[in-house]
Amino acid sequence: xxxxxxxxxxxxxxxxxxxxxxxxxxxxxxxxxxxxxxxxxxxxxxxxxxxxxxxxxxxxxxxxxxxxxxxxxxxxxxxxxxxxxxxxxxxx
Amino acid sequence: xxxxxxxxxxxxxxxxxxxxxxxxxxxxxxxxxxxxxxxxxxxxxxxxxxxxxxxxxxxxxxxxxxxxxxxxxxxxxxxxxxxxxxxxxxxxxxxxxxxxxxxxxxxxxxxxxxxxxxxxxxxxxxxxxxxxxxxxxxxxxxxxxxxxxxxxxxxxxxxxxxxxxxxxxxxxxxxxxxxxxxxxxxxxxxxx
Lengths: 92, 192
Description:
- The complex is a heterodimer of chains A (92) and B (192).
- Chain A has 92 residues and is an alpha+beta fold.
- Chain A has a single domain (16-90), classed as 2-Layer Sandwich (Translation Initiation Factor IF3), CATH 3.30.110.
- Chain A contains two helices and four strands, in the order βαβαββ.
- Chain A has a four-stranded mixed β-sheet, covered by helices on one side.
- In chain A, strand 3 (68-78) and strand 4 (81-90) form a beta hairpin.
- Chain A starts with 15 loop residues before the first strand and ends with a strand.
- Chain B has two domains: 1-36; 38-191, 3-Layer(aba) Sandwich (Hypothetical Protein Ychn, Chain: A), CATH 3.40.1260.10.
- Chain B starts with a helix and ends with a strand.
- Chain A binds chain B through residues 1-2, 24-26, 29, 51-61, 63-64, and chain B through 151, 153-155, 158-159, 164, 171-182, 184-185.
């Protein structure tokens, strides 16, 4: 039900990780926004979520703002949970 | 005619100034174009009342017919419009209660006024049928055929304990970010 390929190994590097596992909409977006504003321009945040709606939500965020770029998204199996991972770079 | 060096440098400066201004204007036009809405209509269906669901899908199919890209975002009571069947298996107590108190599928939706324990809803359906107006189910089918994107709020689904197998096909899970991304690009945005 989402447009992201399953992947285990990705080459995307990152500067900080945000764990929002267990949180539902709109919390992954809100927490990521707070975290991104602490990054320097050009730094990358890796967001680890269990919210499957976050895939589309992060795409939407990247579409409507010029302050971030969504570099990559991934879906990973982690035991009983599925993880939805987003790499967000601060632009301005 | 001999060229006056002063005039020449003047006209070069003027040309450079004009080029700068044209570049500036092009950038501004590009910025503005980016901010113009697309041919797009975004609808939030929050209600599970037959009459409101009906209105939402008349607008959705109408907009699609008019060449708009349409998305319908289902949330809370709107889930009653996209439920295929009711299932109690494996649900927690409160989730079961929620399921029992909700209509089992779109055919059991109540009307917002004069429902009279479902009599009003049946009456409205009969009257529409008599006038050869498409039913909610037909409109939803049409919407799907016309490429209307249907997004279902995953948070409210999770809260109410609704599972994917209780829902119609063709839904995509989304949240406030995906609705706003659509809404911000739309000419018309409705909360029904």
